[in-house]
Amino acid sequence: MVIRLSEIEDSAVLKGKIDSSQLPGTKDEEFSFLTPVDYDIVVRKFENSVRLEGSVGCSLSLICGRCLDAFPFRIETFLDVGLIKKAPVPETELELAEEDLEVYYYEDDDVDINPLVYEEILLNMPIKPLCREDCRGLCAVCGKNNNIEECHCNKVSSMLLGEKLNAFLARQGEKYGSSKKKNFSIKKGQTKDTL
Fold first, then answer.
1. 56: number of Cβ within 10 Å
2. Residue 75, Cβ neighbours under 10 Å: how many?
3. Among 47, 67, 166, 167, which residue has the fewest nearby CB atoms (within 10 Å)?
């Protein structure tokens, strides 16, 4: 959605829906939009800046990080963004302050809020989505979804790789010292450094 700043005197309230096809990156394979994005945003216009504040919400279809099943996930978040009119680039280098990194810039009279809304949705998605907290995931041997049916695979407690790693760590422990407690005694007049 594009906001035309010349049509806003001091502030305006924008309510509506953004179709997911209008958002950048909607061809992502890790999630998809189940509903349009609802927004209720207050736009406050100042001399050389604009402030956007309001709620953003939508339903997504995410892929569980354990069982790989798709599941619905609702996002309700608050958009709070500052926009500053872009100034000409100075000839000399300037050091950016922390507050310079927290604003966005606009050039023309029109401001597209779709990228800002999309970024807010991405920032509120879980890093490792789970269909539920107690998701049991997939069987490491046969690949069955343990949430649907229990597999009866012969799960060996120590795999070949695990045995090789344990043997390697045991050899390294002997060579470089180990965290296991060792029995030794110090004779009178002898220090630990001379052992």
1. 22
2. 17
3. 47
13-49 pLDDT, tens per residue?
A: 989 999 888 887 666 677 889 999 999 999 998 888 8
pLDDT by residue (tens digit) across 121-152? 999 999 999 999 999 999 888 888 999 988 88
Tell me the whole-structure pTM to 2 decimals. 0.69
Q: What angle do CA 50, 19, 127 make, to 5 degrees?
A: 80
Amino acid at residue number 43: V
3-state SS of the chain?
A: CEEEHHHCCCEEEEEEEECHHHCCCCCCCCEEECCCEEEEEEEEECCCEEEEEEEEEEEEEEECCCCCCEEEEEEEEEEEEEEEECCCCCCCCCCCCHHHHHEEEECCCEEECHHHHHHHHHHCCCCCCCCCCCCCCECCCCCCECCCCCCCCCCCCCCHHHHHHHHHHHHHHHHHCCCCCCCCCCCCCCCHHHC
Relative to beta strand 70-85, strand 103-106 is parallel
Token readout for 156 is 């060996």
Query: Going by C-beta distance under 8 Å and a sequence separation of 6 or more, which residues neighbour residue 92?
Result: none
Please name the residue that has the structure tokens 């120590």: 158
Give the integer Cα–Cα distance in Å for 179 and 182: 9
Query: Tokens for 182?
Result: 């060792």
